[in-house]
Automatic annotation (TrEMBL):
GO terms for cellular component: cytosol. Its EC number is 1.1.1.94. NADPH binds at W11, R33, Y50, K105, A137, R252, V276, E278. NAD(+) binds at G7, A8, G9, A10, W11, G12, A137, R252. Residues 1-23 form the signal peptide. Residues 177-317 form the Glycerol-3-phosphate dehydrogenase NAD-dependent C-terminal domain. Belongs to the NAD-dependent glycerol-3-phosphate dehydrogenase family. This is Glycerol-3-phosphate dehydrogenase [NAD(P)+]. Residues 2-155 form the Glycerol-3-phosphate dehydrogenase NAD-dependent N-terminal domain.
């Protein structure tokens, strides 16, 4: 296969490395927006900024320049940019005939749309989907065992992702439920901020377990209201991704919560990361979609109040604990 990965951040680079190391000997091109960055990566055979010390497989080529021309000659295009850049990328790829999948997880900040809804607006003819699940870039790049989900209503997209990435180190499951997979990917980032806050305040394992469990219930309620399948949230892109992002030390969103618990401002926390933490940018849009649908999401509401400076860390915890008793249900 000819595979083009657009975006040379940590995640795009990791998946390009995984595809290039595949037993099928794929021809993989990693596209970088910055020509100097592309030249440096091609010469040094690594991404020193995001994945330092990890050598590129021989089959990985790095390029810049005409993105649409690269995509036109591909069998699969993977968009590895943050959610904020997805609309522009899809507009430029609108005439692409190859299957396209994005990696970003979140809701578009201005419109509150999920990625597939953005695609339906700007490039409805694309054969598109999402590649998601519990996965840290560092571990994928070093071929540690990982399982992910290729979600699309189109079998051609699902099959292309399986053919490109499924192997001994990366197991790929197919799903038609693109709504559920995208909701899981977006909401788990917000819940990871809450769990990081919980751990930073040293509230204990009981509190962490309660947050993850009740957070999963909130995620499921929103997903069902948007038309997702309930079983999706018990799978890799729901429970799996939530557990990883809420508890893993490589999680950027969890790190935001830890820093807020230390007393850092949101600006200080985000600046210290050096990477995008999607939960910060999609939290408000998650709440907006939930309110419009009449879906109750108290944990996510508290995270937004915390990010907006309306609550301090301890006050957010107190607000959740002081809620009226109720029956456990999803």
């Amino acid at each position: 296969m000819k595979i083009v990965v657009l975006g040379a951040g940590a995640w795009g680079t990791a998946l390009a490395m995984s595809a290039a190391a595949h037993a099928a000997c794929h021809e993989v091109t990693l596209w970088a927006r910055d020509a100097q960055q592309a030249q440096a990566m091609q010469a040094k055979r690594q991404n020193q900024r995001y994945l330092p010390g990890l050598a590129f497989p021989p089959g990985l080529h790095v390029a810049s320049g005409d993105m649409a021309a690269l995509a036109a000659d591909a069998d699969l295009v993977v968009v590895g940019t943050p959610m904020a850049a997805l609309r522009g990328m899809l507009e430029r790829l609108g005439g692409c005939a190859a299957p396209i999948a994005w990696l970003c997880k979140g809701f578009e900040a201005v419109t509150g749309l999920m990625a597939h809804e953005v695609c339906a607006q700007v490039a409805p003819r694309l054969h598109s989907g999402v590649f998601s699940g519990p996965s840290f870039a560092q571990e994928v790049a070093t071929a540690q065992p990982t399982a992910m989900v290729a979600a699309s209503p189109r079998a051609t997209v699902r099959d292309a992702l399986v053919q490109a990435f499924h192997g001994p180190a990366l197991r790929v499951y197919a799903s038609e439920d693109i709504v559920g997979v995208e909701v899981g990917g977006a909401v788990k980032n917000v819940l990871a901020i809450a769990t990081g806050l919980c751990d930073g305040l040293q509230l204990g394992m009981n509190a962490r377990a309660a947050l993850i469990t009740r957070g999963l219930a909130e995620m499921t309620r929103l997903g069902l209201a948007l038309g997702a399948r309930p079983e999706t949230f018990m799978g890799l892109s729901g429970l799996g991704d939530l557990v990883l992002t809420a508890t893993g030390d490589l999680s950027r969103n969890r790190r935001v919560g830890l820093l807020l618990a230390e007393g850092r401002t949101l600006a200080q926390a985000v600046e210290s990361l050096g990477h995008v933490a999607e939960g910060v940018y999609s939290a408000r849009t998650v709440v907006q979609r939930a309110r419009a649908l009449g879906v109750e999401m108290p944990i996510v509401e508290c995270v937004v109040a915390l990010l907006d400076g309306e609550l301090r860390a301890a006050e957010a915890v107190a607000r959740l604990m002081e809620r009226e008793p109720t029956v456990e249900r999803h």
